[in-house]
Specification:
It is a single chain. With 127 residues, the protein is of the alpha+beta class. The protein has a single domain (3-119), classed as Cytidine Deaminase, domain 2 (3-Layer(aba) Sandwich), CATH 3.40.140. The chain is built from 4 helices and 5 strands; from the N terminus they run αββαβαββα. It has helices at residues 3-14, 54-64, 87-96, 116-119; strands spanning 26-32, 37-41, 70-77, 101-105, 111-115. A hairpin with a 4-residue loop joins strand 1 (26-32) and strand 2 (37-41). The N and C termini lie far apart (31 Å).
């Protein structure tokens, strides 16, 4: 699956976001080894700490289905700007694949690609 296809899937996921407090929708499409894609959206809660980001939603869905080898994640938001994963999401992603590709959508619609290790060079690990 190419970067634009993965971004399109992230856009589809974003439509399911539950964001009654911030109005800031985020969608993620997580590509696993073998080609399986898991979608995630952000889900807010009136107890803000109980909210969950799109990226973690996708990761938790993948892991709950037995997938551990993550290759790339595409992330889009309703802002129309590049939307990087938050620190907690970066840590969760790095647990499974510290060198995975992070695919974001630029304002002009084109993809920009980063390695997780470049945007989180000093990850926490028990290894």
């Amino acid at each position: 699956m190419n970067e634009n296809e993965l971004l399109k899937k992230a856009e589809e996921a974003m439509e399911n976001a539950y964001v009654p407090y911030s109005g800031f929708k985020v969608g993620a499409a997580l590509l696993c080894k073998g080609g399986k894609v898991f979608l995630g959206c952000n889900v807010e809660n009136s107890s803000y700490g109980a909210s969950n980001c799109a990226e973690r939603t996708a990761v938790f869905k993948a892991v709950s289905e037995g997938y551990r080898e993550l290759e790339a994640i595409a992330i889009v938001s309703s802002s129309g700007e590049e939307t990087f994963p938050c620190g907690i999401c970066r840590q969760v992603l790095s647990e499974f694949s510290p060198d995975m590709r992070i695919i974001l959508r630029k304002k002009d619609g084109s993809p920009s690609v980063f390695l997780l290790s470049d945007i989180m060079p000093c990850r926490f690990s028990l290894k």
